[in-house]
Each structure stands twice: as structure tokens, then as C-alpha cells.
Amino acid sequence: MLTWLEYALACTQKSTVFYANIYAVNLAEDDAGFKNSFAQADLVFCDGQGLRLGAALLGRPLPERFTPPDWIHRLAASCATHGYGIFLLGGEPGVATTAAARLIERHPGLRVASHHGYLSPDPLVEAAALEAIAAFQPALLLVGMGMPTQERWVTARRTDLAVPVVMTVGALFDYLAETVPRGPRWLTDHGFEWLCRLWYEPRRLWRRYLLGIPRFFGLMLRQKITPRG
Questions:
Q1: Where exactly are the structural domains of the chain?
Q2: What pLDDT digit, counting tens, does each position of 109-156 carry?
Q3: pTM given for the model
Q4: Residue among 133, 125, 120 nearest 166 (CA)
Q5: Is the CB of residue 87 less than 8 Å from the CB of residue 141?
Q6: Does domain 68-180 fall into CATH 3.40.50?
Q7: Three-class SS state of 178
Q8: Which of 59, 78, 80, 227 could form a disulfide with 107 if both were Cys (CB 3.0 to 4.6 A apart)?
Q9: What phi and psi, each to the nearest 5 degrees, are found at residue 82?
Q10: In 10 A of CB 222, how many CB atoms?
């Protein structure tokens, strides 16, 4: 994954990178536009052990799970070495700024800029964000607005973004800024990151996990019994 990103950054050709998990599959089942956004991406990577289990159930095993919080610092170190700027777009006001500061603190010399992710309903706010991105001229734009907002925004604005690599990252900025705690590695590395997130944000996420996980595996079973291609 990191090798692919480093190659894409070096080529400077436009690449769009999305991550997929159980929630993404459920959203795609209900939203054709969201599903089409994924079809337009240059790379979609697995960010969830549940998705790996579902793929294995269908006889299409995925080699491993990648999740941005696990490798963001390796990517940042590579960007610092090669002089690639990173722009963080997303989160509540102040979160991306703090996340950027944490990256700079850990990777001296890294060029990082940021803007919050509350771009609507005021078009002037979005225009200001686009101007900030254009002025900074990053090699990598990380978009953390949560699904499905981030995918819709990237798909709608990709032609306006003169950025080699645009990648969605979900709650990454919250983890970097430590506004939302991440679970212990012995849980997150063994398929229970969803449980940690549910514990910390039950009101916001209970439907996604308590209803979404059974629904996903129901979809996988249906696909196994009656393949749709």
C-alpha cells in the first residue's frame, strides 16, 4: 500500500484513493451514487477485518487490512524525505490544525497545511478551502469528513483539485489530534476496532455497528447463495 502511494506521488499523475469497510458496503447497497464514486477511484483498499471475513466467505480472500492510523507516520516520514506537502481537509474546526501540528512535531521538515471539513452550506467556506489547497500545492490531500460525505466531495471536486494524490481517511485527524481515543492495539489488531469506536461514541455509531454488521453478513450470505457478479 505504501509502495503504491509513494509511486503515485512520484509520478505526479492524478490518483484517487478510497478505503472500504463494512459501512461502505452497506452504503453502496443503498446509494448508487456512492457506489459509483468507488467505481471511479484508482485504488480502493481494505480498512476492516469484517470486510476480510466477508471476502473470505465469498471465496475472494483479501491479503490484509490497512488502516490509515497504523501507517500515517510512515507515509508522513516518506513525504518529509521527498519534500511532498500534505494538506489535511476535514474534522471540526481546530482538529485538522492540531493533527497537522502533531505530524510536524514528529516529522521535522514536513510541509503540512489544513482546513476544517465543515464546507457546507456556505459556498464561500468551500471556496476558501479550495483556494487554500491550491495555494499550498500539496502532493497529497487527505480528506477526513466521514462516509459518505468525503467520497461524494472528492468525486465532485476531483477535476478542480490539482493534487497528485487525494485519499479519504475517515477519523484519522481525530486520532492524531487525540480528540477521539483509539482502542488498544490488542483489540484493534484483531478485528475489534469497531467495538472500541462504539464504546467511545455509542450515540453516533450504534446503528452503524449493531445494525450494520448483521446486515453486511446477510448481504454476503445472499451473494454467496445467489451471486450477482
A1: 68-180
A2: 999 999 999 998 889 999 999 999 999 999 999 999 999 999 999 999
A3: 0.95
A4: 133
A5: yes
A6: yes
A7: coil
A8: 80
A9: -95, 0
A10: 11
